[in-house]
Amino acid sequence: MTINKHELSQALLALTTQGVIAYPTESVFGLGCDPDSEIAIQKILDLKQRPAHKGLILIAANIEQLENYADFSSLSTEQLNNIKATWPGPFTWVVPVQASLSKLVSGDFDSIAVRVSKHPVVQALCEAFGKPIISTSANLSGKDACITATQVEQMFMNNPLLDHVIDQPVTGLENPSQIHDALTGKRLR
User: Fold this and answer.
1) Separation in Å, CA 13 to CA 29, 30, 94, 111, 164
2) Which pLDDT tens digit goes with each residue over 88-104?
3) How many CB atoms lie within 10 A of CB 86?
4) Closest listed residue to residue 145, CA positions, set 27, 50, 11
5) Confidence tier at 1 by pLDDT (50, 70, 90)
6) Following CA atoms 51, 26, 67, 100 in sequence, which dihedral angle do they give, to the nearest 10 degrees?
């Protein structure tokens, strides 16, 4: 499964113009935007009807893309190796946040949830964009997450806050990514 050039260019156009996209991940569709655009992040929160205090996940093509957002330097070698052993893959890690990160991303926390995905669409998107994107499940708060592009389109019914839906499949993982605390190693979800 690969994303075609036209679909990729449409998604990149949305990302670079403070827009919101929906895209497949390992288990569900995600809503994404530029993590450096508070306007775009607010659009996602409004689209999902999600309170800002909960925070959001960043998804990337590689760990280097996350270094401006997550403070990996505060982790021990063992903690960092634990993270690297699960990536790329469906494992999200909660790590200390860089002080410069918007509170719209980190919410009420001094940490951030980050993941390096192995989904080919996410890999292509983040590599072409040159940095991570926001990743939150494509759904209205309290509703089931969408697992197809058609479900996304039906749930958001031409909502002007959603700029582009990438019509590619999720890779079939039944449950959302596991979430672990990088400092303690404890599984949170």
Assistant:
1) 19, 17, 29, 29, 9
2) 999 999 999 998 899 99
3) 16
4) 27
5) low
6) -10
Indicate if the pLDDT at residue 175 is higher than 80.
Answer: no
Residue 55 · residue 112 · CB < 8 Å: yes
Per-residue pLDDT at 176 exceeds 80? no
Distances, alpha carbon 177 to alpha carbons 76, 113, 129, 148, 180, in Å: 23, 11, 23, 17, 10
Sign for the pseudo-dihedral over CA of 61, 66, 68, 72: negative
Q: How many CB atoms lie within 10 A of CB 118?
A: 15
pTM: 0.94
Spatial contact of 62 and 116, defined as CB atoms under 8 Å apart: yes
Query: Can you say how many angstroms the Cα of residue 159 is from the centroid of all Cα atoms in its chain?
Result: 20
Q: What is the DSSP letter of 24?
A: E
Question: Does pLDDT of 122 surpass 90?
Answer: yes
- The answer to whether residue 123 scores a pLDDT higher than 70 is yes
**CA gap 22, 31 in Å, rounded:** 4
∠ CA 185-177-145, nearest 5°, is: 145
Residue 35 sits at the vertex; the CA angle it makes with 34 and 41, to the nearest 5 degrees, is 80
Amino acid in position 138 = A
